[in-house]
Amino acid sequence: MDTLRPALASLRAAPVADAHPHGARRPLVPHGELPCSKAALTRDLLHCPATALRLTLPTLLLARQAFDQDRRNAAACVRTAELLLAQHRPTEALDCLDQLDTSMARGAAWHLMRASTLST
What is the C-alpha to C-alpha distance for residues 95 and 106, in angstroms, rounded to an integer? Predict the structure, then answer.
C-alpha cells in the first residue's frame, strides 16, 4: 500500500480551460494522459462528433464480429444495428436485424431498434 501512495497522490483533477474550438470546456491534460474522470471524457466526446465516430468504429467491428459468429445472439444483433444507425447507415442496420436467426424470439429491444431504423 505504501508503494501506491505516491502514485495515488499524483492523481488529481486536471485544470480546465475556458477556450475550446467547439465552445466546450476541455481539461488541460498533458500529452499521453487521459482525463481524470469519465465525465470529462464523455463531455469531450459529446462536443466532438468526429472523435465519437472514431471511437465507435472498433466497437462496431467487435459487435459485428460477435453477431457473425452467432446469429442467435440477439444482443449482438441489436448492438450492431444500433451502432450502424448511429453512423447513419439504416439500410445496413435493417439488414442486420433481419439476419437474426428465425428461431430466436424477437424481444422489445429488437422491435424498438427495427422501428427506429424504419423511421429514419
Answer: 15
Euclidean distance between CA atoms 95 and 26, whole angstroms: 39
Identify the pLDDT of residue 14: 43
Q: Is the pTM of this model over 0.70?
A: no
Name the amino acid, one letter, at 45.
L
Angle, alpha carbons 114-66-85 (nearest 5°): 30
Condensed to tens digits (0 to 9), the pLDDT of residues 34-63 reads 545 555 555 554 555 555 555 567 888 999
Task: Give the DSSP H/E element, type plus range, for residue 76.
Answer: helix 74-86
Q: Looking at the chain, how many residues does it have?
A: 120
